[in-house]
Amino acid sequence: MDRQKLLLGVAPTRRFVFSAEDAARYKARVEQKLRDWRIEFVGIDPVNPEGMLFERGHATAAVELFKRAGVDAVFCPHVNFGTEEVVAQLARELGKPFLLWGPRDEAPLPDGNRLRDTQCGLFATANVLKKYRVPFSYIVNSRLEDPVFERGLRTFLSAVAAARAFRGARIGQVSTRPPNFYTMIINEQDLLLRWGIEMVPLDLVRLVDGVKKIAAADPRAKKEAEAIGARADRRNVQDDALLRIAALKLFLHDWAEREELTAIAFKCHDDLPDYLGIYPCWVNGELATMNVPVTCETDIHGALTAAMLQAAARWGTPPFFADLTQRHPTNDNAELLWHCGNFPMALAAGEGPRFLGTHFVIPPHRPGTGNFAIKGGEVTIARFDGLDGEYSLMMGQARSTPGPYTLGTYLWVEMNDWPAWEQRIIRGPYVHHVAGIHGSYAPALYEATRYLPGVRPDPVEPTAGQIEAYLRGAGS
User: Fold this and answer.
1) Beta bridge partners of 390
2) 160, 238, 383, 463: which could join 73 in a potential S-S bond, CB 3.0 to 4.6 Å?
3) In the chain, how many domains are there?
4) The model's pTM
């Protein structure tokens, strides 16, 4: 499966008592708008001559069509009042994320007649979907040209991508968790039975052996080492170490492709540096740029979070995996997002030191870490975690802010109320690791949890109320 491809099923609906001609006109307008935005979709024109739902048999035919096409989600524009029981039948039988919207009605005609009464139909459909226990997303009754329509549609598609990245994920697990990292204890059976998430284990013996073979005999290793050396300044990183770093990158990427991995959770210390003489931090960032997020210290839940963020961003930018490390020395609402050297260099800021160096925290300070600040702007921060069978997805947004220089990879970010974030993490079930990505994706993550039963949305900033207002069009 192409993880970046998302196919939308579009199933317009009308009701027999309103204008079929106007419904056809709006159907055409909606589909043209999707084409203009380059959203890949399949309609239901083969179901009946109108390509719309309005009789019960249409739902069964549409379900079969969408299953053959392999749609990832369904958009059901009510091009007039709609036929609620048919729409609900389609949604229940298909079992895909579902989006409701209908165009805002114009004034009644001069003779007093009305063409659609779309809003009324949306109320009816939503009620039947709830009776069927079908989760759905909703764009407020609006015009095609209104900003809230595009906002809602794109948020829905990002939410679908994030939920799909989570469900059925395959997480490559390199070795065990570090012995003293009790924070990384998870319930693998829960992940498997609830959401179909699989662990794909790899022991360090096979990894070390494979990396050594690539470094010794694979011509790709020398080319990759030269490419890394051309992009990055080096400090205390000798040619032989650079070759092993390149070989590790190749080995992990080969493994990820062969096993169709969604992400990787890596035991980055202390065994690997002892056996190979390098840290994998730089390689972790490189793989994230290649659409395989990698988390440190065998953080399975962190890997799932990073995969969701990258999907929510529709693979337009790589995620970064960070420790919540310390508060800003002078800004009470700012925090340091940092890790030993694993942020992608593709995100490096244009100014300040940028180099591939040695681990400055853990002796004997072996090579393999990135050292640079990453670019600023709006970032989304998230963490999936659980305890005693209860799971939640913390999400929020922050913005970069100036801060002191430090070694490793880092970004100082400012929130409106950092103590509220700190309290949320302390009260749990969260740990000190988060995934981050450039852009504003808290609303998409919030919507994604509608399609992840057993995962509670836990927004910090913006709050749930602010996200709901945003999706209704606030700030348009």
Assistant:
1) 387
2) 160
3) 2
4) 0.95
